[in-house]
């Protein structure tokens, strides 16, 4: 098994961070462009959020396929094929003339983008020992946040200077280079044990995970947190694109530099988990996310940015813990268990805009924050329940 700090550790971790970066850069490129889409295509704020939510929905559903496939066919080859597909589709998106066509290609892109997130944690679980796994997951989730920043920055900056189709083309070209590096860096699997590809077995594995109350609670924590976190950013772009802030796409893209605090939170999570139970680390991350949401209610740009920095730290701190917690507590078929966590995670992101829009329409940003806190109270309760179940030592069954 790969030990922390070794050459193999850094090579595999760098490869997965690079793959994670390009996945999330391509996923989130549309988020700072939503006000522009509203004006260009004559659509509402909720319809503009579909450019992200429909891609995350497709990504989430694809995980049901990729996880079981990788349990049978191997991790590395599926990650490579899916990454290649994900970075070729944007060249087609850049040629569309209608919003409906854009959404159609985003569905296809989301399907390919799901390959690496579905499998990466399982690959680490196969090849790394426990200490190395906790450290590597933190770095890998950091790649998620950096990719989200990079895609949003590129989308806003390039759109301001050329146009949004060029932004897709430029990011796709850079992503192709990253895929080549990924293929070169990622070591072959040495401890992977293939399982026969049997649909009945796949369904039984998924059903077993869904009957495990501990896994279900962790799935809900990840899904509901992302349900709130990802969609808060969609609505705050409308707040900041209007008076008194009136920020253009370039500056809206730079807003997502607040994800850098999430990179720090992910990287620190593994160290904190050496001292505290992972379930308490999840709770801590949620409480930080709640406090950041409250700070954004202060009516000034520095305060809003400060609140988003706090939000990002708390969210990614919790997400890193939940991801590795699932891998440690799944009873077999770990790729399927990790994939199911991400299904909840991305389905949450795809549905959160609809939920928060119910608060946005009558009450604006204060309504979005109120709706967010209601859901985060639920996830905080679930994290506390997980801690109590772990410390009680009593088995939990459905």
Could you name the key traits of this structure?
mainly alpha; 82% helix; Growth Hormone, Chain: A; 0% strand; 398 residues; globular
SSE diagram, text form:
Layout: H1 7-28, H2 34-41, H3 45-73, H4 76-93, H5 99-113, H6 115-127, H7 130-161, H8 164-185, H9 199-210, H10 213-241, H11 249-254, H12 260-272, H13 278-295, H14 301-329, H15 334-392
Contiguous low-pLDDT stretches (5 residues minimum) are none
Distance between the termini: 34 Å
Overall geometry comes to globular
Radius of gyration: 20 Å
Strand and helix order:
HHHHHHHHHHHHHHH
Return the domain count: 1
Main sheet: strands, sense, barrel: none
CATH fold-level label: Growth Hormone, Chain: A
Overall number of strands: 0
Number of helices: 15
Which CATH class is shown? Mainly Alpha
CATH superfamily assignment? Answer: MFS general substrate transporter like domains
CATH architecture designation: Up-down Bundle
What is the multimeric organization of the chains shown? Answer: single chain
Question: Would you mind describing this structure in some detail?
Answer:
The protein has 398 residues and is mainly alpha-helical. The protein is globular and about 55 Å long. The chain contains 15 helices and no strands. It has helices at 7-28, 34-41, 45-73, 76-93, 99-113, 115-127, 130-161, 164-185, 199-210, 213-241, 249-254, 260-272, 278-295, 301-329, 334-392.
